[in-house]
Structure formats: C-alpha cells, structure tokens
Amino acid sequence: MNGANLRQKIAFSVLGLVTLLVVIPILLILYFVISRGWSAITWEFLTAMPRNGMKDGGIFPAIIGTVLLITGTMAFSLPLGILSAIYLVEYAKDNLFTRLIKLSVVNLSGIPSIVYGLFGFTLFVVFMRLGVSILAGSLTLAIMSLPVIITATKEALEAVPMAYREISLSLGATRWQTVRYCVLPYAIPGILTGTVLSLSRAAGETAPILFTVAAFYLPRLPNSLFDQVMALPYHLYVISTQVPNMPEKLSFGTGLVLIGLVCLMNLVSIILRSHFRKKKQW
Amino acid sequence: MGKKINERIIETAIRLSGFAIIAFVILIFLFLLKDSLSLFRAYSLKDFLTGQKWLPISEPPTFGVMPLLMGSVMVTFGAIVICVPIGVATALYIAEVAPGYLKTILKSLIEILASIPSVVLGFIGIVWLGPFVKNTFHLNTGMCGLTGVFLLAFMALPTIISISEDALISVPRMYKEAAYGLGATRWQALWRVVLPAASSGIIAAVMLGIGRVIGETMVVMMVTGNAPILPKSLLQPLRTLTATIAGEMGETVSGSQHYYALFAVGLVLFIITFILNFTADIYLRKGRR
C-alpha cells in the first residue's frame, strides 16, 4: 500500500509540474507584451492616425476598423445564430434534416479561418460584387462566428427546464409564444456569454479579413460600409513582418491593445455569466 | 389575426435559418470546388496531388501540392506530439487533482490563452521564440518548422485541455467509487479506470486539436520561413497549405491558373478538416453514451 501511495504522490507531482509548464508561458507572454507595450500606450497612440509609413503616430483607424467589424459581425451572426439554435432546440424533429444541420455546425466550427477568407472573397467580394469592404469582411466573420453562437444558444435553451414549456403550452400558448415569453428570457444570459466570446474571437482573427476587408495602410476613417478599413490584427501582422525598421515598441503596443480588447470582451462575458447565474431561478 | 401572421413570419425565419446553416457548408464547398475545377481543366489532378514542386510563377508554372501538404503534416505532427501528452496531463490535473480555487484560476488562464489572437503569438514567435530556437539549435534562421511547432502546440492546448477535461468529468462517479471500494488509490482509479473510460472524448480532443493546428494560418505564415520546398526536417524553413493561400492570394491575378490553384489548396484543407471534425463528432457522441 505504501508503494501505491508513493506512486500516487509522484504521479500527482508530475501532473502538477506539467500544468506549470503550460501556465508559465502564458504568464510570460502576458508579462512580456504588457511590460514592453505599456510605454507605447499614450493618448496619441490610441487616437491619432499612423504617420511616416506607420512608424509614427497612432493606430486609431485600426481600432475603429476592428470595432466596426465586430459590430457588423454581430449584426449578421446574432439573429441568424439565435434563430437557428431555436430551430434546433424548440422546433426540429429528430430527422435527417436536423442531423444535417448539427453536422453542418460541427463542420463550420472546424473550417480553417483562411478557407473562410477564400470563401468570403469569392462569394461576397467577387460574386456579390460587394468589393473589398466592411460589409464583405463582416459577413465573412459572421459565418465564421456562427458555430460558437449556435452552440452557446443551444446549451442555454436546453438548460431551461421542460416544465416551463409544458405549463405555457398547457395554458394554450402557441409554440412561438412559449419560446418568446417562457424560454428565451431565461436563456438570454447564456446567449450573451456565447456571443461576446465568439465576437472576441472574431476581433482577433486575421486570416478571414486578409482579402475581404483589411487595408494595408489607410490613414483615414471609412465613409461607408463599402470602404476598406485597417484592423488591429492585420495591422500587427503588417508592422511586424512587412515594415522594415519598425520600432518594436509600437508593435508591442498594438499587440497589447489587441489583447486588451479581446480580454475586455472576455471579461464582459464572464461578468454577464456570473451576474445572471446569481439571479437564476431554478 | 395579426399575431398569427407575425408568428408565421418568425417561424418561417427560424426554419430558414436552420436551412441556412446547411447552405453555408454546401456553398463553401461548391465555391471552392468551382474554382478548383477551373484549375483541373488545364492542369492535371494527378500532377497537383503528387507534384513535388510548387512553382506558381515560373514558366511554365507547376502546382504540386506535396511540399505544402508535407509542410502542414510535419508541423501538425510535431505540434500534436508535444501538446497531446501535456494537454491531457493538464486536464487530469485540473479535473482530478487541483483544489477548487486553483481549478478556477487554471481554467481562466487556459481561457486567456485560447483568446490570445494568433497574430500576437506569431509576433512573439518573431521577436522571441525564433531567435531562441536559432541560438539553441545553431541554425541559420529561427524562422523554421520547429518554431512553428512550438507555437502551434501551445495554441492547440486550450482545445485539447478543455475537451479532455469535459470527457474526464463526465465519467460517472460510480466508476471511481467502485475502484476506491476495491482498495485503489486515487491515482490508480484515475489511471486505470477514469482515463480509459474517457478515452473516446480524449480521442475527439486530439482530432479537434489536429484540426485546429492544420488550419492555423497567421502563426505559420509569420514564423515558419515560407519556403515552399519539400521539407526534410523541422529545422529548415517550410510552408504550409494555409500560409500558401494567405501569402499568395494577394499577388495573383483573378482568373489565372495560380488563382485557381490556391482554391484547390483551400479545397484540400476543407476536405481534411471535414474528415477530422466528422470523426471527432462520432467519438464525442460515443463518449456521451
């Protein structure tokens, strides 16, 4: 028995050490980006146009571009994602069509982001003639975000107790009334959490926007949805690989702003989750 | 009656959205196929699949996908060899060993890692990991397969950890308790009972991890050196399927053979990830039963 206990001690220590091996690089990267990037973050950096071939000035248009893209993505993916999840949970029968939808969600979540970029380019930019534009980029990112939103919404809807639906239906409500008044209100927190999470992913993506919206260097704000924009992740790619003699400080600063934005969105989703969990009624 | 009409509209919209999801997958496939077929009208499928040279702008151009495919396979294999043991061990630690407060901290850290944009990791690879690999292995350049392997392994960890952890947690308590009842230590129960019972979930985690790695674009484009030659070792520059599309798409003329060839590369990626996800889904279902 003593041998077994010793072996357990060794095994658990090894597991702990391996976990440390995962944790340390994460902390190091965060420390590295924050400590090197922090000095670049000034009011001017956040609100000025880039100058001198991006080696000076700020990243304002890239920030605005990313915010516009997130908004556009949400506008398309949120309704579509929620409605299709409602279909899967509340309406679908267990048949071939339903299984096909579920399979499609699984596969959408696995398609590489660069393939979304190719698809967005042929469908939205070329075929639908939207051009390289905010609209084309948002649509591409929206399709990419769908699986996460659908999965989160599905889980949120499934977590609402069956009794809620049965009572509502027994009182003569139609199926849609039941969904609208007795299921959706309780699923909103889960849906929001999933949405914010998927949007934070979309905000950090580079590959899907390469050919659909991102501008290499465009020191002005867009006038319409058919304009190109700069975006934070693509800007970081450009200044760290395509611009010679780029001051490292600015690259770290851009990386920090990008990580900050993504973490902020994650934080919002965590707060939403815990806030609503406290109010949960079942 | 107004309400009825509203209801019919919204229910139609709900059904249509369900249909739209299927339509997107089919559309993606068809659009890739359409442009790929334009290539294969002029260039033989066999030469594309088995060709050893990717020289899209020489005269005449050759579009052999082998160097790119091998580049992808090699970095993916390297990354998976590193991250599967580490990921599963971390999942075991989080699910079964760590005390409650530590569990929360670890899980949030993994979530942070999952949300770090790949372009940031690529940047770290350029300024930090690349030079490190170069000096450690005495190479001419740190921008090589191995640098990509390290970063990709790191990026695939959240997928592997969270799905393995789910699989471990969903093993019924009774299994463990039965093992304890027979006098097993916690480790013996974990190693001999819980881990085998969670195996199909862990296989799914590995599959999805492979999918994540093979589809990753920015990191490999930024750190693996972008040399479209058949790689002999991970210590030399190489190029993956994804990086080829990302790097060359901007320079092609729409409608040229090169342009269509990139869609064919996209189709190869689509098919690979389709198979991986399909298989992973089967294993996940098996695990749930």
Short overview:
The complex is a heterodimer of chains A (282) and B (289). By secondary structure, chain A is mainly alpha-helical.
For the biggest sheet of chain B, the summary is: 2 strands, antiparallel
List the uncertain runs of chain B: none
Estimated radius of gyration of chain B: 23 Å
Continuous helix count of chain A: 10
Total number of beta strands of chain B: 2
The CATH superfamily name of chain A is MetI-like
Q: Overall 3D geometry of chain A?
A: globular
Global morphology of chain B: globular
Give the overall average pLDDT of chain B.
92
The major pleated sheet of chain A works out as: 2 strands, antiparallel
CATH class of chain A, anyone? Mainly Alpha
- DSSP summary: helix tally of chain B: 12
**Adjacency order of strands in the biggest sheet of chain A:** 1-2
Mean residue pLDDT of chain A: 91
Number of domains of chain A: 1
The secondary-structure element order of chain B is HHEEHHHHHHHHHH
| End-to-end separation of chain A | 45 Å
Strand fraction of chain A: under 5%
* SS-derived structural category of chain A: mainly alpha
Cross-sheet strand order for the largest sheet of chain B = 1-2
Which helices and strands appear, and what pairs or packs with what?
The complex is a heterodimer of chains A (282) and B (289).
Chain A: H1 2-37, H2 43-47, E1 50-51, E2 56-57, H3 60-91, H4 96-110, H5 113-127, H6 134-159, H7 162-170, H8 175-204, H9 232-241, H10 248-279
Antiparallel strand pairs in A: 1-2
Helix pairs in contact in A: 1-10, 3-6, 3-8, 4-6, 5-6, 6-8, 7-8, 8-10, 9-10
Chain B: H1 2-42, H2 45-50, E1 54-55, E2 62-63, H3 66-97, H4 100-115, H5 118-137, H6 145-169, H7 173-181, H8 186-197, H9 199-215, H10 218-223, H11 241-248, H12 257-288
Antiparallel strand pairs in B: 1-2
